[in-house]
Amino acid sequence: MAWKISFYSGVEDQILNMPAKLQARMLKLLELIEKHGANLGVPHTEPMGDGLFEIRAKAQEGIGRGLFCYLKGKHIHVLHAFVKKSQKTPIKELALARQRQKEVQNHES
């Protein structure tokens, strides 16, 4: 069975507003996740702790990140996407994703 991917409100637009090659790479990774699940391994996906995971897209225009969590069954919810400008994932981006993660996981129960 294929995985289901859903997006927090506005996240699809965040991906569609990324530079073209970065957007294409992110969409390709999401397709792979839909087929095989999110355990693609480094450098494509990486755990961020407390049930939060990162999708890593790289292209000439920079580095794109998507932050996601698992919901019941084969369901992945993409919480936030952004173009990374520094070496480390910015704390405000992580905080936003963690807040959304709590929201969608509490809503699911």
Automatic annotation (TrEMBL):
InterPro entries: HigB-like. This is Phage-related protein. It comes from Alkalimonas amylolytica.
